[in-house]
UniProtKB/TrEMBL annotation:
<protein>
    <recommendedName>
        <fullName>DUF378 domain-containing protein</fullName>
    </recommendedName>
</protein>
<keyword id="KW-0472">Membrane</keyword>
<keyword id="KW-1133">Transmembrane helix</keyword>
<dbReference type="Pfam" id="PF04070">
    <property type="entry name" value="DUF378"/>
</dbReference>
<feature type="transmembrane region" description="Helical">
    <location>
        <begin position="40"/>
        <end position="58"/>
    </location>
</feature>
<dbReference type="InterPro" id="IPR007211">
    <property type="entry name" value="DUF378"/>
</dbReference>
<feature type="transmembrane region" description="Helical">
    <location>
        <begin position="7"/>
        <end position="28"/>
    </location>
</feature>
<keyword id="KW-0812">Transmembrane</keyword>
Amino acid sequence: MDRVALILMIIGAINWGLIGFFGFDLVANLFGGQLAPLSRIIYGLVGLAGLYSISLLVRDREQV
């Protein structure tokens, strides 16, 4: 689960970097716009991955 969350967060970070530097939303471009159902699902999964990853901050180092 940690790897899936990390992959989704990397996708989100790349997308936000493209938005910030070039004004280009890769997810929206690939999946039919920001309001397209598939885009919204991906945005939601990236958000959930970020929330899940908060747990990585509070875990013991031996468990990670």
